[in-house]
Amino acid sequence: MSVQTYSWLLLVASIAAEVAGTIALRYADGFTRPVPSLVVVASYAAAIWLMSLAVRHLEVGLAYAVWAGSGTALTAALGILWFSESMTLLRIAGVVMIVIGVVVLNLETQ
What we know:
Blueprint: H1 3-28, H2 34-54, H3 60-83, H4 89-108
């Protein structure tokens, strides 16, 4: 496996950890519930650590844009699916634009 591929996999793991931490915030109840609160802290720590490893071989601007955009889109989708959050046309359009932006950023580096 190439270093570049490994770095992208680290970035994907970082995104997953960040999303897990954000979803756990819903259950932490203002950090009053110990287990979900520990999941939040551990997930965010893992996300930052994995990102720090990924940016060793990825452009930091690109990596951060992919991380933030993908995390935002995935969190919004999970909120709709798991928490029955509102799904409006405008919200869907916003998530689609985020995904398009991430794709365009990745195409530019090819």
